[in-house]
Amino acid sequence: MNSRERVMAALEHRPPDRIPKFDSFWAAFASRARSELGLASDIDLDDHFGIDISIAVADETPFPTRAETLSRDGDEVVRRDGWGCVVRERAGAYFSEVLDVPIKGKGDLDRLVFDPPALDARYAGFLRTVDANRGKRAVFCKTGGPFLRTSFMRGKVDFLMDIAGDALFAKALADRVADHIIEIGVESLRRGELCDTGLWIYDDMAHNLQPFPSPASFESVFLPGYRRMVAAFKDAGAAQVILHSDGNIAPLLDMLIDAGIDGINPVEPKAGMHLPTLKERYGNRLSFIGGMCNSQTLPFGSEADIRAQTREIVDIASDGGAIIGAHSIGPDIPVRNYVAYHDTVLRDGSFAV
To answer: Is residue 107 part of a domain?
Structure first.
């Protein structure tokens, strides 16, 4: 099987030739891996480590034409981003400071006018990613989700307060964002010709203990938008709709399945998301992409620990429904530990088909 065939077999709960693999490498890890493994600087780590999935991302921001730099002072920049937020950034820093948001109250909702979803500029980088990876990997397109993307425009704390204290306003705002995302997703599927694989919704809506919105709040505020999103993407031809959310989303899984979500990622062990247990519970109702621990096992575990966790996932993947991965591979993960994990996938992850 090639990567696309292998990934789609697993997502469709059919036996793959080997367990598919999906990781994303931080630049700092990639640089160190090339140095320690003696790889040339132009070696693609996705190729070297057999990554089977690529995610192509369009510019889904509501206001891309209004993004601008407002001031610059040395290595500090204040700018308005495509979400309409004013942010302060420092060169080399991973996080930025949000100084202002476009939605400060209910009246701002009526004044929202998003830039057109069909702007060609939204899809230039997206199409380059598709073209670079088609034929090498299973390429999917991506949108955000209504929880996280709405929080960008409202402010995270204020939006959580809305969900708890003014659910009607929170839902109205999330619905506007969901409708915009739907148009971006459908256009991405069409332009990228990616219906044979599908689309991932990235919506980090949980911490290690539980979701940020309670199950009741999720059901009233976000589930209707999720139903519309998944239905629209599948009506457009998407074979699979996958949800990415860090954290413990177990309390929401039955609702997500009911909305039509086909699989979840990254299935974080540190958040109590144990892939073999979840696969046993949900069977063919849900597929799982991830399962490796990038906070304890890969950074600090022994080689035996790493091989044991890898084999645990491999052992339940031969009939499909599971793709192994550790989500993001950061500089805290020793290269030798990642290699131990990768070698175990190669040695033990092949199946007779």
So the answer is: no
